[in-house]
Design goal:
The structure is a single chain. This protein is α/β, with parallel strands linked by helices. The protein is about 50% helix and about 15% strand. The chain has one domain (about 30-260): NAD(P)-binding Rossmann-like Domain (Rossmann fold). The chain has helices at about 5-25, 40-50, 60-70, 90-100, 125-155, 175-195, 220-225, 235-250, 265-270; strands at about 30-35, 55-60, 80, 105-110, 155-160, 200-205, 260. The chain has a seven-stranded parallel sheet, with helices on both faces. This is SDR family oxidoreductase. Belongs to the short-chain dehydrogenases/reductases (SDR) family.
């Protein structure tokens, strides 16, 4: 190896070792993560706290949220506000308490999603369809508006919406959920245009991730379901958390309005 090549090689190794810890730090920043008492949301909150952020986690259940706060390191690192994601009073309270506790709001992750109906789209109960859209589409819009008004509009920030591969193609049995996630992906692009340049808005679209929310899609037949994935496994919350952290970070500073597919290669081959 030529001396100059060797020097360059050593420098690259050094950057590889030191870079991520330096560039993906969220020290001094504050995030709200909705639907974060467990699963993907808690995984994202954990990732952000590990990288130095303070977080407010939300979900419906007070007790699971209290456990999540303990897991995240206690009130010095995290607070929790219980309530329904589509409830305006809850949204207002969560943002207000975040500002009161930490004094700012730099990052927002709209993770809450529901799917109360399984079956053909045409058979979806209208009330169920309305609730799906209220939580999966209109709530992220409202949370983003509140984050903008509270801090991001003046100081800048980043938003990540948790969509789904169900929003990218037909999803038999969970079709209305897929329609709502398609709308969320579209909402992401509109918000990116409306809120630039100060606020970046992106989305992730996971395939099946091993959480309680998705158990019905793989329970008792995980090996068969995973066989459709080129990487031969289902996702884990940490698979999503790392990607979300990247999109929120300055490393993604020239990325907005995009949806990052996180699917173990599933959509490459057209598997179910």
């Amino acid at each position: 190896m030529w001396p100059r090549t060797k020097m360059l090689s050593k420098r690259l190794v050094s950057l590889t070792v030191k870079g991520p810890a330096m560039t993906l730090s969220f020290k001094g920043q504050v995030a709200v993560v909705t639907g974060a008492s467990r699963g993907i949301g808690l995984g994202i909150a954990r990732e952000l706290v590990q990288r130095g952020a303070k977080v407010c986690v939300t979900a419906r259940g007070a007790e699971p949220l209290a456990e999540a706060v303990r897991e995240l390191g206690g009130p010095d690192h995290a607070i929790a506000v219980a309530g329904r994601a589509d409830d305006a009073a809850h949204q207002e309270e969560a943002v207000a308490r975040t500002m009161e506790a930490f004094g700012r709001l730099d990052l927002l992750v709209n993770n809450t999603g529901i799917n109360p109906f399984y079956g053909p789209v045409l058979d979806t109960d209208p009330d169920a369809a309305a609730k799906i859209f209220a939580v999966n589409v209109l709530a992220p819009l409202a949370w983003t508006r509140r984050a903008r008004d509270a801090w991001m509009g003046e100081h800048g920030g980043a938003v990540v919406n948790v969509a789904s591969v169900a929003g990218l193609r037909a999803s038999q049995g969970i079709g209305m959920y897929g329609v709502s996630k398609a709308a969320l992906i579209r909402l992401t692009t509109e918000l990116a245009v409306d809120l630039g340049p100060g606020i970046r808005v992106n989305a992730v679209a996971p395939a099946v991730v091993k959480t309680r929310f998705a158990e019905a899609l793989y329970e008792g037949r995980e090996e068969k379901v995973a066989a459709a994935y080129p990487l031969r496994r289902l996702g884990l919350p940490e698979d999503i958390a790392g990607a979300v952290a990247f999109l929120l970070s300055p490393e993604a500073g020239w990325i907005t309005g995009q949806t990052l597919v996180l699917d173990g290669g599933l959509t490459l081959g057209g598997g179910l």
